[in-house]
Each structure stands twice: as C-alpha cells, then as structure tokens.
Amino acid sequence: MIDILISDPTLRDGNHAVSHQLSAKQVAIYCEAANKAKVPIVEVGHGNGLGASSLQVGIALESDKVLLETARKNLSNSKLGIHVIPGFATIKRDLQLAIDIGVDVIRVASHCSEADITQRHISYAREKGKEVYGVLMMSHMVSATLLVEEAKKMELYGAEGIIIMDSAGAYLPNSVTEKISALTSSLNIPVGFHAHNNLGLAIANSITALEAGATILDGTARGFGAGAGNAQLEVLVAVLNKLGYNTNIDFYKILDASEIAELEIMQNIPVIKSESIVSGLAGVFSGFSKQVKRLAKEFNVDQRDIYFALGEKKVVAGQEDIIIEVVMEILKKDKHE
Amino acid sequence: MNSLSNSTFIQQDCERSCTDVELLRPLSNKNILITGGTGFIGKWISEMIIYLNKQFGFNTKIYLLARDIETFKSEYPTISKNVNIFFIEQDVKYISELPSDINYVVNAACSPDSREHVSQPLKTIDTILKGTSAVLETSYRLPDLENILHVSSNYIYGNVTKLNQKNIFESDLGVMECNSIHSAYGEAKRMAETLCSIYRNQHRLPITIVRPFAFIGPYQKLDKPWAVNSFIREALIGGNIRILGNENNVRSYMYGSDMAYWMLRILSVEYTGEIYNVGSDEAISILELSKLITKLFNRNIEVTSRYTKDNHNKIHSLVPDISKAKSLDLTNTFSLNESLARTIKWNQLFNNVYS
Amino acid sequence: MKKLRVAILGSGNIGTDLMIKIQRSEFLDCVLFIGRNLSSPGMAKAINMGINVSDESIRAIEKNPNCCDLVFDCTSAKNAIHHWEILEKLGKIVVDLTPAKLGGLCIPAVNLEESVKQKNVNMVTCGGQASIPIAFAIGKTHKNIEYIEVVSSIASKSAGPATRLNLDEYIDTTEYGVKIFSKAKTTKAILNLNPATPCIDMQTTIFAKVDKANLEELKMEIDLIVEKIKSYVPGYQLLVPPIYENGRIVVMVKAIGLGDYLPKYAGNLDIINCAAITVAEEYAKNRNHG
Lengths: 337, 355, 290
Known about the structure:
The structure holds 3 protein chains of 3 kinds.
Chain A: E1 5-11, H1 13-17, H2 24-36, E2 41-44, H3 64-74, E3 79-84, H4 91-101, E4 105-111, H5 119-127, E5 131-137, H6 144-157, E6 162-165, H7 173-186, E7 191-194, H8 202-211, E8 216-218, H9 233-243, H10 251-264, H11 274-282, H12 289-299, H13 303-313, H14 321-336
Parallel strand pairs in A: 1-2, 1-8, 2-3, 3-4, 4-5, 5-6, 6-7, 7-8
Chain B: H1 6-17, E1 31-35, H2 40-56, E2 61-66, H3 69-75, H4 77-80, E3 85-89, E4 104-107, H5 114-119, H6 121-139, E5 147-151, H7 160-163, H8 184-202, E6 207-212, E7 215-216, H9 227-236, E8 241-244, E9 250-251, E10 254-255, H10 256-268, E11 275-278, E12 284-285, H11 286-295, E13 303-306, H12 323-326, H13 336-350
Parallel strand pairs in B: 1-2, 1-4, 2-3, 4-5, 5-6, 6-11, 7-10, 8-13
Antiparallel strand pairs in B: 9-12
Helix pairs in contact in B: 1-2, 1-10, 2-10, 6-8, 9-11
Chain C: E1 4-9, H1 13-22, E2 28-34, H2 41-48, E3 53-54, H3 59-63, E4 70-73, H4 77-89, E5 93-96, E6 104-105, H5 108-115, E7 120-122, H6 126-141, E8 147-155, H7 161-165, H8 167-182, E9 186-194, E10 202-209, H9 215-232, E11 236-245, E12 248-255, H10 267-289
Parallel strand pairs in C: 1-2, 1-4, 2-3, 4-5, 5-7, 6-7, 8-9
Antiparallel strand pairs in C: 8-10, 10-12, 11-12
Helix pairs in contact in C: 1-2, 1-10, 5-10, 6-8, 6-9, 6-10
C-alpha cells in the first residue's frame, strides 16, 4: 500500500533547466533508470507541457511525439505522465496524439485562478479512461479560500486529485500548511504539492504539505527543474522513508537514477543562485529564469531589476514575452536617468 | 446485426416497470409537455408513453421542448419518428405560448451535469429560475391543464446528506453554503420550489414536486464524472476502477424505466400539492458498488480508492426514504444488480462508443 | 449620404458594444438589435437608446426581410452556420464575428477592398485582428518564413464563460488566419488569461523565425500598417517595435478599448468590433458609389 504518491517530472520540469533541449536519448536513459526504481509516475515533455514548444517559452529539441514515444518504450513499472495547459495545448492537435501514444496520467494545469479553462481537457481525458489530475500553478498568488474554489471546480470536472504548484518557489511553510489544510478539508480527492527551491525550502515545504494532509508529492532527480529546481527526489524518498511513509520506490535504485541523471542529462546541477532568491521573493514563475538570464545579458540589464519588475506586473506562467517588454522599459528608464 | 433491437430492449424494460397500467389511465387521450425533453427523463418518459400507446392504446401525445432538436432527432430516431411525439424547439427561458391542448406538464429543464454547474453557474441559475417561471407563467394560461410535475433535485437537501446516515425524508432540510459558486444548482433548485409554491398559492396552479436521486440505465451518459457512470465506462473500455473520495459513502440507483413509470404515476395522481422523493432505497457503499460492477465483467478489474484523509471518516449518505411513493403503489422493479447488468448490456449492444 | 441599414444578431457583450459604436458611424444605421430575451442587459441598453429590438432571433429577419441590408452575427459558430443558410437566401451581407469561418477572413488593414466583394466575411478572432496585420507585414518583407507565432494575454475579467470553454476554437481559428495572411509554413497561437488587478490591457506578441531579418524595411511596413489600424482601432499601439534577438523577430502591440460597453481593459472585444464596423462601412461606401 502506497502512502505517498510520487510523481517525477525530471524530464518535464527539468526541461526548463536546459531550455527544453532534452534529447530522445536522454529521455530513454532516465526513463529506464526511473522505471527500475519503480517511480510511480514519470512526467515527460516540454517544460510548459504538451504543445508548448514555441518561441514564447522555448522551442523544444524534440517533438512531443518523439519525447512521449521514447518514454513509452522505456516505461513499464512506472506510469507515463504529461503536463497539459489549455491555451497552449488543444485537444485535437495535442491531447489526442498523446493519448494515442499511450500516456497513462494526464495532469491538466491552469493558473491558480483560472480553473474553468481546464473543463474540456479534463473531461476529454477522463472519457478516454485516463488518470487525470488538476494542477493549479503559481498557487502562492491567491488566498486559500479562492484556491479551494478553483480546486473544487476541477474536482467536479472529474479530476482525480489536485496538485498545487509553488511555481515561483515563493512559499514559506506556514502558507503551505494553510493552503493544503484548506484543500484537504474541502475536497474529497487527494491533494498534492509541487515545490520549487528558490528559498531553500523545497523538501521542508513538501514535508509540511504532507503533514497538512497532502498525499501526492512531486520531486526530481537532483532537484533538476526550472529556476532553483524542485524538491530533490532522492532526498525526498530518504526523508519519507525515515518518517515511515511508503512510496514504493526502490531507494538504492533511485539513488542510482539520480547519479545517471546527473551524468547524462544535466548541464549543471541546480543550485540556488542569487537571481533565484530574488525570483522567489518576487514570486515570479521559475520557468522564466533562462530567458531572463539571456535577455539581461543581451541588453546589459540587471536580472534582479527584471525579476522585481515582473513581480510587480503579476505575470503568470506563459507570459514570457513580457520579459522583453520589461527589459525595454528598464532600458528606457536608464536612458532618462 | 443484433437479434435484439434497441426499441425491443427498451420496451421490455417498460413492460416490467409498468406494474399497474390502470393507475396511468388518467393520462390516456391526454397531451403531455416535457421541458428539457431531450434529456434522460424526457427520453424515458417518451419510451414509456410509446409503450403504453402501442400495447394499451393510450393515445397519449407528447410534446418534447428543448433547444437543440436536430441533434436529438438524428441520435434517437425511434423516439423522434414516433407518430405521437412532437417537438417544440425553443429555449425554456423564453417560452410565452404553448399548444393549448396540453393537459400535463413535466418541467425537467436544466442539465444535471455538475461540470456545467460550476463553469457556467449563471446559465445554470437562469435556466432553472427563468425557465421554471416561464413554464409556470405560460401554463397558467393553458385551458385544460390538469397537473404540473416540477422536477426538483436531491441537491435541495443541502448538508442533510452529510449529517445523516439514515435515508432522507421529504421533510428533511439541510443548509447550503450560500456564498459558494458550487451552490448555484442547489440554491436555484430550492428557489424554484419556492416559485412553485408561490404559483400554487397565488395562481392556484396544480403543481406536484418530485425530487429525483441518482438514476442509471440506457440513455444515461457515461461520460459524466459521477461514480457509477465512470465505473461502468472504465470497465467497458477495459480500464480499472478508481474510486474518488470516500469508498464508504452510500448511494442508491434507480433504473430508467422505473423512474419513468414513477414520474407518470405521480403526474396522474389527483393533485394534492405533495412532494415525492424519486429514487431507490437499495443502499450500497461505493466500494460494494464497484465490486458489483466488477462481477458483471468477465475479467479482472482492479479497484483503487483515492481520497483525502481529512474526509475519510465522514461518511456521506445519499439515499431517499421512499415511503411516500410507496403509498402510491410504486416500487423499484429492477434491483441494483439488475439495473447495472441491464445498463452494461445496453451499452455493449447499442452504444457505438462501447459496442 | 444614405446610411446602410444594419441589424445585430446576438445581444451579448460583443453585440451590445457594436450597437453603441454604430451610433457614431456616418455610414451605418442600426435598425434592429436582435436577441432571444428582452430582459437581458444588452436589450435594456438598446431599449434605453431607442433602438428597435426583437427577441425572436433569426426569425425577426425572416419575418421582415426588408428591414436591413447587412447583418452582424455575434452569436456562436454553431448558430452562425444556421443563420447564414437563411441570410444567404435573403440576399443579406453578413459580417460574422464568430469563429464559423463561412466566408473569407477579413483584416481591414490588409484586405478590406477584397473582402467587400464577398457576401459573407469572417472577422477571425480578437487575437487575430491584433496580430495578423503585423504577421502580414513580416510576410511582405521576408521570404520563406519558417514559422510565426502569436501570443496574446488578456485580462481574465474580459474572458467570459464562452471564451473559456472555447479556447481550442480560438487557437485553431487564429492559427489558420495567421497562416493565410503571413504565408508562413507553420503557425502557432497561444492565449494567456491574466487575473492581475488592475486589469491588464490586451497585449499581443508576434514572433517570427526567419533566416535573415530585414528590420529596416519591416519597421517601415509596420509603421504604415499600425497607422492604418489606428484609423479604425484608436487604442491600438506598437509597444515594442521589431527587434531581432535569439534568431527571432519580436514585435509587441497592445489594444486599449474605447470603454464603450465594457471598460477599457476589454481591448480584445474592442478590436474585433472596430474591425467589423470598418468592413461594414466599406460596404456602405461601395453601395453609395455603385
């Protein structure tokens, strides 16, 4: 009996860390390792999910088709999961394809206040017999009451669990407790937490979530993910074991998988860089970090100024184009001073 | 080619549910309007009338009122081609005139799809409130009106279903979270009952209210994210059954043809202003339900449960007390097991998606 | 000058805003505002403004076919198909604001003169009206464009339940429009809803992947076309003029609404309505000359 359901988005969130350049070969290698470790769900795809390869958020090296087919071939113990944001992915063009390839788990995501846009995608995936979760991104941006309202909509659309994401790595443990408890006391279905490590709290926040009633946690090998990275999966498994929770994951094998990941798929192991701290404080989507870094360098602007300006504009995931606007604004201001 | 046609299958069900044809005699040579006529309730009542006309020469005419008739006509030719079925393509909210030969009205408009209630709560409220008031206002001017059956909902019981583990009586009333968009459907249904009592009192309109519980059977759409619907769908498409929420929650399911007979029986009783629960009192836990469905398939189906621990000790029961209906000689002729078996068989034989 | 008599089908936000805008037109006379329910807010507004109204939907025109020359269809794609069957027989011009795509796509800054040769024109989508003129300018100044992408962010508040349910249709129609006008090999459309308060203005970014950017010429073309759009969408502005960075051309525009029926943040609604009126006025001018 599994106490805590672990979903591993190393090959999805991690794609942010390499500007979506994961190759089919790398996907195959890590899937094989994660499969051996019996990780329950392995999430694969572009960092922003299905159908998101674009100039806006980054063109992926491999198509969704190649990524998913490769993963499918290498997963037997583990289920194949995808992240789907309506507005990027359409049912006809993207979701049908993924289902034809044979994905098992579909996580339909929206900005934390916009759950309505997930109805069609959730319904479609449920009708096709898939395991479907609702994901609320950037969940630090709304109150617990509003978050519950959106989560309940997803439950009624047919979601089988709700995962809230700390997409900006902005949570402190007390807000994790507040939000997760509010959700677990109002929903009938399981609740999950997806951490980012901008403030060094990814593991601590994940455990706090669990203590508040969450039963689904996301973690990635070496924390490989957007910005400062996610909760480090092998650490998470170790801590959960020590706390006496069962994840069904083979501990030695997950340690092996993380070694393999470090060697085969990472350009750099995630660390909390100065700009990640600022990004977390400003509450900016972690997926922005690569583009912020590049544009800051290209136009000779301070990354920290960009993050605080983006935070003030309350941009949501998917609004990467605003980084350019912000950079242009800073340049204009500098000229005047 | 199936040896058994859809219409034979359904007519067999009608025959079984129709325990006493004579009780429905008042409807003979009369005309019935059903709003929301293309839904589950409308289809089954139409089928029952088709049966009564054919076997017992009832000569009852049905008007089905709905917004989108064309799709319905192409999907359900046996109903739509019947000589006694007529269509009125209109939005229930905006009706102002009805055929003057109508004797009975069944007000069943508004989708019970909980997905739509939260994504389009204003539309939900509008359909229920404006729809009900348009139906009542227009019915008031029908010269030969005998009775209106207003189809309410078990949602109006609010948190009674969470507080009680015993069956719900018509007199039980719980509270509802009035400041939540999730209450749009339930609160509107409550207000609609209030409208009914106002029209009954102020305009002397004969109105009987029924509060339906869960139904199952042919014509029930399996894409709905409700427990029994998704269990059967998963089992039909070769998947496993996932129970969402507490597997100890208790439900009951009434078969479609039983429902139709009940509705018509209640419609034809001399008007007393009564309210009736319509449903089955054969209670079953969600876990037992999933096992029952599993047994009806010739393969191993894994059953898993997903829930939040917080709510796991609170058992939520939604089963009607039906003694009032029983006093009208109404029974559930299909057991739960038979209802499920029949539903599965119908989908395998006649639903293109699963056959 | 004799005004063209127009009717509006659909009394929602789009139809009502259109009706208010038409009151300022020298070329159009709104003779009938048609919905299904006389008590809707749009109807109340029309009645207050002294405009003839009907709650009989398409039947209002069937009953009195001589009431108007042109019909704005602001209902839904599904209804628009049914309406066109009737209106075509009655010889009406239809300006279609749904994604039904029955007639040719019309972007006034690009193909106004051609559009009015047809009896049914489609106004694509709000994101399409904002992005296609720019995509067209890129197509005009660059050959063999591999890929164009348009990303729109709109205020969450300006996206009603129908928009939210139909994101996929929005994406399909916008991608189709961008492809036709830019001649790019592949196109992609993305829509973000932003709930920030105060509400954000509608903003659209156009990205193009080209071998070699011809920024000089593109800037000139864009300045020209932006001026053209401004003549019918006063709140349209170039936010970031074309830059070439990381192998892609980037242009950003925004549209602030006129604040007629919905507040100014609903630039998405404004831009498609202003475009629809422009094409209707063109029909009117042609008729007067013809």
